[in-house]
Amino acid sequence: MSRIVFTPTEASRAAEAHVNELEKGDGDGMPLYLPRMEYNPETRKGFLPVKRGELITVTGRPGNGKTGFMFRWARQRANKLQELAKAGDEKAANSVVLYWTMEQMIEELRLFHVAAEDGVSATDMANGKLETEQWDEVRKTLRKLQVNPLWLAGKSFARRKDKTKLDEHALRGALESIETWQGDNVKVQVDSVFVDYLQRFRPGPGDWVQFYGDLVNGMKEMAGDFATRVVLGVQAKREVDARTLPVPRMEDGQWTSSIEHQADGMISVVRPSHYLPQDAFWDKDDANIKVAGHQQMLVTVLKRKLGPENFDGWVNFAPEYNRMDEYELKHITFDNDEAPHVQR
Predict the structure, then answer these.
(1) For residue 317, with 0-12 CB atoms within 10 Å meaning exposed, 13-18 middle and 19 or more buried, which class applies?
(2) Alpha helices, DSSP H only, in the chain?
(3) Is the pTM of this model over 0.70?
(4) Comparing C-alpha atoms, which of 299, 243, 306 is closest to residue 267?
(5) Which of 1, 19, 69, 178 has a Cα at 20 to 30 A from 115?
(6) What CA–CA distances, in Å, run from 281 to 16, 244, 247, 289, 291?
């Protein structure tokens, strides 16, 4: 127990070491990698980078791009660490990003990564519709990715005889297997963890609300225990679909309200084409916003500890290539219990 008790001297020394890290301004905070939505210290607007020990949730209804958004974020973070490591950053060189998937097999997810790197459709790969030269490029990229610090955890075709239950205990064990120490000095650390997604953790008999509430608390504890960032996918409840603008709000996490209290940041994603036909108006009061294909996505920052919140950005997201680009920024306001509306 003495390891969790700090004398005044120990607390000050630990805080001073932390101050030294902050002073370096070494980019340890994890941004969204969406430039126009990032925090600007001059205007004090935008998404504040995610610090170690924080829990961020990404909420969306099925089919609205939650998994794609999270995997793209993880991929961008891993690429940034690789870039910093090549420039001589020792911390980045000893850091990894873990993507915990309960939705896809590891091999499928890895090919999703290849699609983003090569611009080859993941759909075409899955259906075996590539030319011989393209398959050769896929293999070449897979070998190149062997040095990329994006680690995957989940079910695999290659290891299907292993019948490991994907639960909170297994996730903690995975993190413990990655983190490596030499005395009190960490040698390999987990930079960030992306968990896809909360409602795929299956409760036993009993109170499901209590189970998912405890699980969210457990994710927050893991962020602190491993000095990492946890980005947790959350399925929004069905009632969201019935709204005029089906944008998930803070209270819309299925089965639990603990998300609102425990999360340091909350993001929601929605694809208008999931609800409306091409060229239909997304908001009947704003003639400038039309549904423009399945790649159109609205990303909303619902909550951000110590930072701006209740703002959004439109992005162009190609799920088959796991690529995302921004376009004209709009804003959403929330009128208490009323549906959100888009402002010009």
Answers:
(1) buried
(2) 8-24, 66-86, 90-93, 106-118, 122-126, 132-144, 168-178, 208-225, 258-262
(3) yes
(4) 299
(5) 178
(6) 54, 11, 15, 6, 6
Residue 13 CB neighbours (<10 A): 12
What dotted CATH number matches 52-266?
Answer: 3.40.50.300
User: What are the tens digits of pLDDT across the range 206-263?
Assistant: 899 999 999 999 999 999 999 999 999 999 999 999 998 899 999 999 888 788 889 9
Rounded Cα distance between 293 and 298, Å, is 13
Q: Which helix (H) or strand (E) holds 190?
A: strand 185-196
What residues does each domain of the chain span? Answer: 52-266
**Token pair recorded at residue 143:** 């070998």
Note the pLDDT tens digit of each residue in 132-151: 999 999 999 999 999 999 99
CB contact at 8 A, 58 and 234: yes
Largest CA distance in the chain: 66
What gap in Å lies between CA 23 and CA 86, rounded to an integer? 22
Contacts of 10 (CB under 8 A, 6+ apart): none
